[in-house]
Amino acid sequence: MGELLNVVGLGTGVALYAMLLVMVVRAPHHSDVASMRDSLPLATAVLGLAWNVCALPLYTLSGAKAFGPLPDLAFVGFSALGFLPAVVVHSALRSGPSSAHVGARRLLIALAYGTSAAAVVLHASALVAKMPVPAVPAMRLLTYTFVAMVVPVAIVTRHQPGGRRALSAAALGAFAVSALHLSQLHTGNDPWMVELAGHHASLPLALAILYQEYRFAFADLFLKRALVILVLVAAAFGALATLDPLSATGSTAVFVGSRDVGLLVTLWVATALAYPWLSGSIGWFVDRVVLQRQDYGALRRTVAARLREFDDVEPMLDDICRLLAGIFGGVPPTWCELATSPGTDSAAVIGRTDRGVSILIPTADAPQYSVRSPILTDGRRLLSDDISTLEIIGVAVARRIDAIRLSRERWDRELREQEMSKLATEAELRALRAQINPHFLFNALTTIGYLIQTTPPRALETLMRLTALLRGVLKSEGELTTLGHELDLIQAYLDVESARFEDRLDVRIVVPHVLRTVKLPPLLLQPIVENAVKHGVSPQRDGARIGISAEVELGKWLCVSVRDTGAGATEPVLARGRERGVGLRNVERRLIAQYGNAASLTVESSPGLGTLVEIRLPVDIAHDSEAVAG
User: Fold this and answer.
1) Does residue 322 contact residue 369 with C-beta atoms inside 8 Å?
2) Quick check: 577 and 588 in contact, CB under 8 A?
3) Pairing verdict, β 481-482 and 356-361
4) Which of 2-6, 379-383, 592-596 has the highest mean pLDDT?
5) What percent of the chain has pLDDT over 90?
6) What SS3 class is residue 523?
7) 61-111: pLDDT as tens digits
8) N or C end of the chain: which has fewer CB within 10 A?
9) Is the model's pLDDT at 354 over the cut of 90?
10) Which residues pair with 552 in a beta bridge?
11) HSE-CB for 562 with a 13 A CA cutoff
12) What is the pTM of this model?
């Protein structure tokens, strides 16, 4: 069991330290300070890898003896192992305030490296003298010195968080136990628990150094995987220790029989099934307990919900920066507008700078935006989950900005179209107002001249009605007027025409009083009544009757009818008149501009029976009545 434990444990150490070395070498360096601090993890990776690589053949090729046929390899491995606790001490003493106990810190660091160097000298002397390596005095020197240094290191680092101090003390204690065990030059008959404590103290040393110096940079990439591997190895050896008494007797455990094979297969399947849960649990522990990171899934859901609440880009970016503060240690990032043109890549781009990172918001159109983080302190760096979350949020923000811009463009286009339609309607209204029939004015003035000679009082009355008519036609009342004002305008017009036609013109207006407050576009009825006088009354020797009525259908449709008992017209003549005429065409176009397809203008005419013109448009009787009353 001890030999198997050494093979698996040292092989695991080789894999972990090799992974750590690759990550340290490939990690970007953004400043001189960061590069100086990176030297400790680099030393940890090199020393740990050297120890595990050298120890692996020592405890497999030469049995349980750490000396004999491979003295040079033993010298390199134990020399590397001897410097690991010195790096732990260095890491612990560099983590506190630089102004506190500077002399004591330097003394303890010098003592740690001096002890490790002295142990290397003793190993070298033993190697030259053909004596066993590791040298017993060297291992005992390391044991006693670093056990004694636990107390002064704890005193000097008393202002550090308790977790860091405890981890440093535990790592040094584990190394001391290991060094004491290795100094006994054991023969391999020790229990597996003794072998575990004696040969694998480099792993807690590595964890202590990483926690002190590179906590944020490697906890995500290294600690999660390391803990998963260590837990799996521990589970495997726990199961192996449980099965050991059940297997064949003797000093060497050999699995025989179908029962043992079935148990091994069951354990393999159980380990495979437990791996996803185990990996997720360790990831949660590292994120929440070690790094104290927020729940990024909840953050993404919160950001998605908040994005839908904003219709302006600037307030939205301010709010998103406040939500991202947890990723950067509680300090919110800032955003700025970029003058560069957007590229073809639709993914958020994470750029690294000396002051932190910048996240490009990849909008489809310019201007684009950049969210810039605050200065990352205490060795903190963005890890894989941080970058993934920022990329997802950056793309979500960009799509929301594109949606806001598209909505604004659509709204602006609709406003422009409405403005153009309004201008066109006003232009048509002005044209209609300017198109008062010159023939009507000529006849009205001729009639007034005749009345001045015969009945001056009536001439004055007719002139005043003509003045009221012209003032009503030429005066702009805005987009809408009332049906009552339209009827007053028509009455003034008909009063003038009555002075000319006298008994030949018979007018009847039947409109309920409540409908006089209904809103409608101005000058809708006057052109229709004028057509009735011109084409219905004027050609008839005996004149004709003109009837104007209004009613409400189904509580939401206003129907206004103008009927004359004149000569009428055939369908082709009527169609040609609507096409070439100005008054009816303008009225119809203004109805479409104001109400769309909801309003209509219909004309029915029969020769000898007269003509009926009906306008149908949507109204809100209750609303219009309350507005006028108010």
Assistant:
1) no
2) no
3) unpaired
4) 592-596
5) 8
6) coil
7) 544 444 445 788 888 988 888 888 888 778 777 755 544 567 888 898 899
8) C
9) no
10) 558
11) 20
12) 0.45
